[in-house]
């Protein structure tokens, strides 16, 4: 049986959910049961478990989202001529 790691403390609810999914997976070893228990899609459970098994806890970190800057900020910062 796998030992369950001590997950670091976080106030981020999304990260807590990921840690809970991994903790439950290490206990149950069934991704479908984990998805139903935590009410997270099986696709996300599969992604998080695969990432955890390949790279450990670091793989579960929330990455900064890239994308187009907010249009509202661009409009407010323009100086009228």
Automatic annotation (TrEMBL):
InterPro entries xrefs: Homeodomain-like_sf (IPR009057)
Record's protein name: Helix-turn-helix domain-containing protein
Protein species of origin: Pseudoalteromonas arctica
Organism phylogeny: Bacteria, Pseudomonadati, Pseudomonadota, Gammaproteobacteria, Alteromonadales
